[in-house]
Design goal:
single chain, Aspartate Aminotransferase, domain 1, 4-stranded antiparallel sheet, 41% helix, pyridoxal phosphate, Class I and II aminotransferase
Length: 357
């Protein structure tokens, strides 16, 4: 059996503050919860869910301004990504993505014996669309996929650059993973009928605060949707998730308010972390973000990890010198900033001590 690098999700009750999964710190309201409780009483638990997820597709279509015929609903946007790669990638076929980006692109490509190729972006997030296209022409991808805003960096690719990619690879499916769209505000959904090779994926796990339910969507032109539906797993979205999703989608104004608060908190968090960076003698760096997290790099990642974990704080660490902090509540963010600030002071003092000796 071939070795596949699996996704490592971390859930540990030892951590009082978990800001590693890019979840929303805002839960559903009491009114929504009461509505859910009443609707759950009507579920026929002995029956399979609606195979076509009609109600939730209509509800989401109403929110984003397309027809439900442009949408497939599924078990998180992960399933939608899997559906695309499963239908397009066979042995030795290539998926082109960006480095760094969401690790599940690699996972699903590996499952299908495909080849993953990655275009390396600059550490400051600079993206050269012309260099990306030149690289893409060399590797001849069957699928191009990237998150926008990028996970884990929070950097973005402009709509103009994405259109350039679509026009340069007309026979290649271009998948724009918009899991964090709400925190950015610019989408490619308006182009799905113009570019027949465009696919957009979305989720209710982030801004909508429904990570527990795993609800995702694939949005594309109607002909492509019909084709992909032929390979969709039957009964892929359970009745409870469909029901709750429909209820929450009736209240987009709540999400807009939540997003405003999270974006405000993101900017406040970045400002405070940037102050730490300025006094760190280049020991740590943080990057501006258009998502609900802040990406950083440090030469002292293990010391930072120990300092945070000793205080019950879990953030996301990557294999190199980088890490990612999800935006938490104001109190959580203040606590995290204080721990990181104290840790950097200790690192700086030790460096100065070594220099003086």
């Amino acid at each position: 059996m071939k070795k596949i690098k699996s996704y490592k999700g971390i859930m540990n009750d030892e951590f009082g503050i978990r800001v590693n999964g890019n979840e929303s710190y805002k839960n559903i309201t009491k009114d929504e919860l009461n509505e859910i409780i009443e609707e759950v009483k009507k579920i026929n638990f002995n029956r399979y869910p609606d195979n076509d997820s009609i109600d939730i597709r209509k509800a989401y279509a109403n929110v984003i301004g397309v027809s439900e015929e442009n949408i497939i609903a599924g078990n998180g946007s992960d399933e939608m990504i899997s559906l695309i790669i499963d239908t397009q990638i066979t042995k030795r076929k290539t998926v082109l993505t960006i480095n760094p980006d969401f690790s599940m692109y690699d996972f699903y490509t590996s499952l299908n014996d495909g080849i993953i190729k990655k275009y390396n972006t600059e550490k400051d997030g600079e993206f050269s669309v012309s260099k990306f296209i030149t690289y893409g022409k060399k590797v001849e991808p069957k699928v191009i996929i990237f998150s926008n805003p990028n996970n884990p960096t929070g950097h973005v690719i402009s709509s103009e650059d994405i259109i350039f990619i679509l026009e340069s690879f007309k026979d290649t499916l271009v998948v724009v993973d918009e899991a964090y769209y709400e925190f950015y505000g610019q989408s490619m959904i308006g182009y799905i009928e113009i570019y027949k090779n465009l696919v957009v994926t979305r989720t209710l796990s982030k801004a909508w605060g429904l990570a527990a339910l795993r609800i995702g969507f694939l949005i594309a032109n109607k002909e492509l949707i019909k084709s992909l539906n032929l390979s969709k797993v039957p009964y892929n979205l359970n009745t409870f998730s469909q029901l709750v999703g429909c209820i929450v989608l009736r209240h987009p104004e709540r999400i807009l308010k939540n997003v405003e608060e999270i974006v405000h908190e993101r900017e406040r968090l970045y400002k405070r972390l940037n102050e730490i960076q300025k006094n760190s003698n280049d020991e740590i760096k943080f990057y501006k973000s258009k998502s609900n997290f802040i990406f950083g790099r440090t030469k002292n990642k293990e010391k930072l990890k120990k300092a945070l974990e000793d205080k019950g704080i879990l953030i996301r660490y990557f294999e190199d010198d980088s890490f990612r902090i999800s935006v938490g509540s104001p109190l959580e963010n203040d606590f995290i900033v204080n721990i990181i600030g104290n840790n950097m002071c200790e690192v700086r003092e030790k460096c100065e001590e070594n220099i003086s000796n």
